[in-house]
Design a protein that fits this description.
By secondary structure, the chain is mostly helical. The protein has 2 helices and no strands.
Length: 49
């Protein structure tokens, strides 16, 4: 059975790289749109068609 103590130690280098890549993409895809939307005027954004 998998033990939490193993952590990242037993992961292969490729799996670690994949995990880091997934985290970076997830962070970028959630922070970038929020940062972009925070600089918009809400009234213009609502009434823009």
């Amino acid at each position: 059975m998998f033990s939490i103590k193993l952590g990242l130690k037993n992961l292969t280098r490729q799996k670690r790289r994949n995990g880091i890549t997934i985290l970076v993409i997830a962070l970028f895809s959630s922070i970038a749109p929020a940062y972009w939307a925070a600089h918009k005027d809400p009234v213009k954004a609502i009434y823009h068609r």
